[in-house]
Write a structure and sequence with these properties.
Layout: H1 2-23, H2 27-32, E1 37-38, H3 48-64, E2 68-72, H4 89-100, E3 107-112, E4 115-119, H5 126-132, H6 140-156, H7 178-207
Length: 208
């Protein structure tokens, strides 16, 4: 009898907890649910001027009707629990794209030092992969950000952006803020806790 009464609660917790656990496997999936760009945080940071250039290009692409989200992966630490996909941008793009399809099914661009990955739900991206293949990727987080800016402009048919002069490795601020990553993680935990509390309340009212 008790197990039967608890079944709805268990179902609610499973529906909420499983997607949350999967999303937490890699930081980019958490950020890209609500934002258009994931900047590396754990493996170096993109300087503000390079980040702003990328943001402007992505916003221009959306304004033109080319919806795209971008994940910059500077090192394996930026992949969280799926660190083994570092160096495999297309495989990670496929993985990340599937993580996001509940809220986003448009174009996804992944940039790593080793190259690009492009994904779109249930559509071939062979043409896009060919388009970005020749875009150069300089060293460091800024180099990855610049490559993303050039790639997005090329995919969206935008003019070539003006790239900030200081390309190469960078340790300056401009990546995804630590407080933002923490806030998203805490928010997910609070959501699960709220759903559990709601389920308990419903069961108590049924008993009453």
């Amino acid at each position: 009898m008790l197990l039967r009464r608890l079944a709805p609660l268990v179902g609610i917790v499973a529906l909420v907890a499983v997607p949350a656990a999967r999303a937490d496997a890699d930081p980019a999936s958490d950020i890209l649910y609500t934002q258009r760009i994931y900047l590396p945080f754990f493996s170096g940071k993109v300087s503000p001027e390079h980040a702003q250039t990328l943001k402007q290009v992505v916003d221009d692409a959306w304004a033109k009707g080319y919806q795209v989200k971008v994940a910059l992966i500077a090192g394996d630490k930026d992949l969280g629990g799926v660190y083994q996909l570092f160096g495999k941008p297309q495989e990670y793009a496929n993985f990340l794209g599937r993580e996001l399809i509940f809220l986003y099914k448009g174009h996804l661009l992944v940039v790593m030092p080793q190259g690009f990955g492009v994904y779109r739900y249930q559509q071939s991206t062979a043409r896009e992969q060919t388009q970005v293949k020749g875009v150069p990727i300089a060293e460091g987080p800024d180099g990855i950000a610049d490559a993303a800016s050039l790639a997005v402009a090329k995919l969206a048919g935008l003019p070539k952006p003006d790239i900030a002069a200081s390309s190469g490795s960078s340790s300056s601020s401009g990546g995804t803020p630590a407080w933002e990553v923490a806030a998203i993680a805490v928010g997910g935990a609070l959501l699960i806790a709220g759903m559990i509390a709601f389920g308990v309340l419903v069961l108590r009212r049924r008993r009453a």
